[in-house]
């Protein structure tokens, strides 16, 4: 059973930074894709970023490109999301996800990921 736990959320003023972590246990990932999604109140869950576990190739939504960085630490089975220049519209619950076989076309599709964390709240005030 894969268990994923996010941490690092919190409250910050606009322009500030936060780093989210997602530790996966119960499975050592050597392939597949790890991703971050977010969901704001009243909105659908949306893709934020993803990284190929073995390739290290990264993918970003247009709304966070240039501000957020996703990276993984294979030895710790952990993926991170460094968020800089935060904006109030970044306020949401952030979820990490893992998919064993997510192709390039599917990195932004939540249904392609089989494992999810419980989410961590990020609040950005103006």
| Helix-strand string | EEEEEEEEEEE
Strand-pairing-aware structural class = mainly beta
As residue ranges, the low-confidence spans are: none
Assign an overall shape: globular
Helical residue percent band: under 10%
How would you characterize this protein structure?
The protein has 126 residues and is mainly β. The protein has strands at 3-7, 10-13, 18-25, 33-39, 46-52, 58-60, 68-73, 78-83, 92-99, 115-116, 120-125. The radius of gyration is 13 Å and the shape is globular.
Which tags fit this structure?
11 strands; globular; four-stranded antiparallel sheet; seven-stranded mixed sheet; mainly beta; 126 residues; 49% strand; 0% helix
The gist of it:
This protein is an all-beta fold.
List the helices and strands and how they pair.
Elements: E1 3-7, E2 10-13, E3 18-25, E4 33-39, E5 46-52, E6 58-60, E7 68-73, E8 78-83, E9 92-99, E10 115-116, E11 120-125
Parallel strand pairs: 2-11
Antiparallel strand pairs: 1-3, 3-8, 4-5, 4-9, 5-6, 7-8, 9-10, 9-11
């Amino acid at each position: 059973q894969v268990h994923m736990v996010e941490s690092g959320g919190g409250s910050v003023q606009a322009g500030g930074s936060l780093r989210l972590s997602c530790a996966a246990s119960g499975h050592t990932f050597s392939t597949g894709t790890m991703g971050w999604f977010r969901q704001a109140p009243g909105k659908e869950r949306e893709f934020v970023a993803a990284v190929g576990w073995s390739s290290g190739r990264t993918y970003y939504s247009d709304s966070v490109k240039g501000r957020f960085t996703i990276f993984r630490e294979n030895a710790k089975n952990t993926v991170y999301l460094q968020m800089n220049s935060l904006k109030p519209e970044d306020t949401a619950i952030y979820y990490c996800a893992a998919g064993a076989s997510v192709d390039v076309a599917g990195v932004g599709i939540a249904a392609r990921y089989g494992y999810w964390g419980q989410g961590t709240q990020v609040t950005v005030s103006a």
